[in-house]
Amino acid sequence: MVVGVLKEIKLAEKRVCMTPAGVDQMVKHGHTVLVEVNAGVGSGFSNESYLAAGAEIVATPEEIFERADMVMHVKEIQPSEYKLLRKGQIVFTYLHLAADLEQAEALMASKCVAIAYETVQTADGKLPLLQPMSEVAGRMAIQEGARFLEMPQGGNGVLLGGVPGVAPGKVVVIGGGIVGTNAAKVAAGTGADVTILDMNIERLRYLDDILPANCKTIVSNPYVLLEELKQADLVIGAVLVAGAKAPKLVTREMIAQMKKGAVMVDVAIDQGGCFETSKPTTHAEPVFDVEGVIQYCVANMPGAVARTSTLALTNATLPYALALADKGWVKALEEDKALAKGLNILDGEIVFAPVKEALCVA
Q: Most buried of 83, 108, 183, 308 (most Cβ within 10 A)?
């Protein structure tokens, strides 16, 4: 199979979907790998390193789309690429279609085979291709939130860990999944006063066992959530429904009752966000003001730590990419039920039910 590794073109996105080590594996399996020039530079991988691994360096994305049987990205297909897609071509990347009707319509029109990283799901409910980026984003959420709590950034001037004689900052994490757990770990590590809310009592029991004493667990409901928000210096939105739009758990009315200069980080923004007021932002302009509260909604947070993110992501994606290349998508999906759940669009139709429901497509 001819596999195309595209350069990321989303603003401030420096990750790459395959490392030279991945190219080496693909080539050893008998496949041809086309790498767009400078695709890996942002993550520390030179064109020469890809050539040494057996790749062919290609000057334009147009050539990759024309020649490749399977094209790979990290982020979703961008508008400038829609017209380059073709019937039967495998697209393997993060798609996040539940909040992106325009992209979904373009993928359907092309009649490509669109397989989304974020909906690949194992029998035990785990999301193996979303997990590494969720780990990165969860940890980054605290790092970014702490930065915007500083007064020069517009925050209320609270140091999360406090100092002797001064109370630490209050961090509220909404959601006890991978993002929330990693956010809580990092926040607790700073010395902050951390509360993590979730509706799953069994998950909270687990988190209560593994997290340090300065991290409390509370069963979430609207009343409790509002009381926690009122006290919060930093709020992390970490709610996920696999492949579907995130539920809007925090309303503008709730935000209006928070401390002025508090910070909210919506890690669910790729799926539409879990705050009513959320809208996608970029690394260049990451925040906006809502009722005196700073809201951070960068849709590709892990792109800011591209080296770490690329290595974490490609460790997870390479086995699936190899299976698609070795077997073709039909056999690969037949033999791997987890990978089969990644299929979002086929023959011009949305075939993943949560995306169809989110986009109200018949």
A: 183
Q: Are 72 and 18 in contact (CB under 8 A)?
A: yes
Look at strands 170-174 and 70-72 and give their pairing: unpaired
Residues with Cβ within 8 Å of residue 93, at least 6 apart in sequence: 17, 71, 72, 73, 74, 75, 76, 77, 116, 117
Domain covering 131-299: architecture: 3-Layer(aba) Sandwich (3.40)
Length of the chain, in residues: 362
Are 72 and 50 in contact, with CB atoms under 8 Å apart? no
Domain spans of the chain? Answer: 2-120+306-359, 131-299
* CB distance 246 to 239 below 8 Å: yes
Which residues are bridge partners to 172 per DSSP? 195, 235
- pLDDT for res 190: 97
Which of the residues are catalytic? 96, 270
Please, what's the b/e burial string for 30-42 (b: 16 or more CB within 10 A of its CB; e: otherwise)? ebbbbbbeebbeb
2-120+306-359 matches 131-299 in fold: yes
Estimate to the nearest angstrom the gap between the alpha carbon of 153 and the chain centroid.
Answer: 25
Fold of 2-120+306-359: Rossmann fold (3.40.50)
Query: pTM, whole model, 2 decimals?
Result: 0.88
**φ, ψ for residue 25, nearest 5 deg:** -65, -45
Tell me the C-alpha distance between 269 and 43, whole Å: 23
pLDDT band at 2 (very low <50, low <70, confident <90, very high): very high
Whether residue 272 is predicted with pLDDT greater than 70 in this model: the reply is yes
Classify burial at 17, counting beta carbons within 10 Å of its beta carbon; exposed 0-12, middle 13-18, buried 19 or more: buried
Using an 8 Å Cβ cutoff, are 127 and 120 in contact?
yes
